[in-house]
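new request in #modeling-help
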Amino acid sequence: MAPLSELPAATAGGDELPFLRTAVPGPTSRRATERLERVECPAFGQRRRDRQEKSGAEMAPIVLGWGKGSNLVDVDGNRFVDLCAGFGSVLLGHGDKAVARAIEGQSERLMQGLGDVYGSDAKVALLERLSQLHPAPGAQVLLAQSGSDAVTAAIKTAVLATGRPGVLAFEGAYHGLGYGPLPACGLRESYRAPFAAQLSPHVRFAPYPRGEGDLDRALDAVEAALRLGEVGAVLVEPVLGRGGCVVPPDAFLPRLCELAHRHGALVVADEIWTGLGRAGSPLRSLAIGAKVDVLCLGKGLGGGLPISACIAGPDVMGAWARGGEVVHTSTHAGAPLACAVALATLEAVRSRKLPDRAREVGARVIATLREDLRDVDAVVEVRGVGLMIGIELATPELGLAAMRGLLESGFVTITGGARGEVLTLTPALTISEELFSAVGPALRRVIGA
Ligand SMILES: Cc1ncc(COP(=O)(O)O)c(C=O)c1O
């Protein structure tokens, strides 16, 4: 395959409108998918077939070859606008120079070290930086590799610090599919059901407030669960991400923290999606004044490489120093390459003021989308904060049809929400406002006015 620069359809700038050379998917994507389906676990092909049956829309995927900024190019040379950015993980856009330089520099020095036995200078620098993100003086960090792994580390931390096994989670929330967070997955019963016999029975759910009107009911349910005295961790997303970009009332998280603390529980803020500028502030929970105890970061932290972190004050994280070899670690945790890229990403997010940019651009794009889609019957609501925007459609079938129609028009999106009824837009924080805004008219064409 030709490198990006030789592709006629590719873009040098990374901020270009779609250019489709073939029908989507093209023949090369189709052939590559056939090969993939022969060797990949069948869960994913089956999901595509189920979706196809449900929506009536063809779900054959494209296969990606290249990325630059907010453009993706598939193996047929079709150029797309990327409104997903690797499930929100490519904060700086594809092929960002700061990330590429960090990878090059660190890979020439040391790619893999000896994790928690002999650290590396890159790991020392990253942990010092991450510690400063937490408001507690002397905050300490447990590195992990995926979001699910960071949440597992947080749940373990809370058990050690409180001595209580219980977790209070929220309906509609998603924290990953490993066995730590899976029992707390309020998004979809089908993720938990086949494994129920192996999951922790100490998880309770409360409703997630979608507006001022549900706030008291949600907090009453929280308090009722906390009164039982078993809960050590209240696990919460500051904004529901996979749950459909649901922004709760600002008072929710601060009041949740007060309640949890009154009942001896810790609040774990899962900022894996909202953090590092995505929701328009460096950390959403802190920006709205919540006194959370444990922070989980992932997704964008690694600039595309897998690294995540669980951060807590020394009073909480200190619970790990109990002797008897109690640790949470893995072979690649704290690998120098990922640490160097994470440091470069954090610095780029800060120096380019991307949280402020996300907040401002996001607010304007939401307003533009509302205007563009105001008389489209299929659209229930446009909502979100920062560059985490959801367009709720009337049915899950419409969600899939919209996602498909947009793909065939050159825009990559995914669906979220409990039933898949929310088109979810989480582009790179560097995307141009003009390019992002092009999705409104495209969606109008796809689902009709
Ligand atoms: C809020 C939140 N927490 C945790 C996770 C799990 O992260 P990962 O997929 O890296 O395990 C996700 C993934 O989408 C997420 O959105």
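bot summary: The chain has two domains: 4-42+56-95+353-447, 97-351.
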